[in-house]
Amino acid sequence: MNEITAGITGIIQSIEVAPGESITVGQVVINIESMKMIIPVEATDAGTIGEIKVSTGDFVNEGDVLVTLV
Questions:
Q1: Phi, psi of 65 (to 5 degrees)
Q2: Tell me, what's the pLDDT at 9?
Q3: In angstroms, rounded to a whole number, what is the distance separating the alpha carbons of residues 1 and 69?
Q4: DSSP character at residue 63
Q5: Three-state DSSP state, 66
Q6: CA triplet 67, 47, 20: central angle to 5 degrees?
Q7: Which residues, including other chains, have CB under 8 Å from residue 68's CB and lie 6 or more apart?
Q8: How far apart are CA 10 and CA 39, in angstroms?
Q9: How far apart (Å, rounded) are the C-alpha atoms in residues 47 and 45?
């Protein structure tokens, strides 16, 4: 199972996908607010969203799993 992880510490500002949705490489999946900047988290693999592990407003650390792909 593939995972999309946070590349930076911050707060989840928005979630741009839903479970069951097909995604492509480079597609923005989640936006994280860090140091007053919005940092997009992009998919590194194509696939289908299995589970979203975070919610808007959650604090995440670098390396935390945000989304799993099936």
A1: -75, 125
A2: 98
A3: 6
A4: T
A5: strand
A6: 70
A7: 1, 2, 3, 4, 49, 50, 51, 53
A8: 9
A9: 6
| DSSP per-residue letters across 1-62 | -EEEE-SS-EEEEEE---TT-EE-TT-EEEEEEETTEEEEEEPSS-EEEEEE---TT-EE-T
The amino acid at residue 42 is E
The residue with tokens 């492509």 is 24
Beta-sheet strand order (sheet of 65-69):
2-5, 65-69, 47-52, 22-23
pLDDT in tens, 7-59: 999 999 999 999 999 999 999 999 999 999 999 999 999 999 999 999 999 99
Cα 19 to its chain centre, rounded Å, is 12
Residue 66, token pair as written in the block:
């945000």
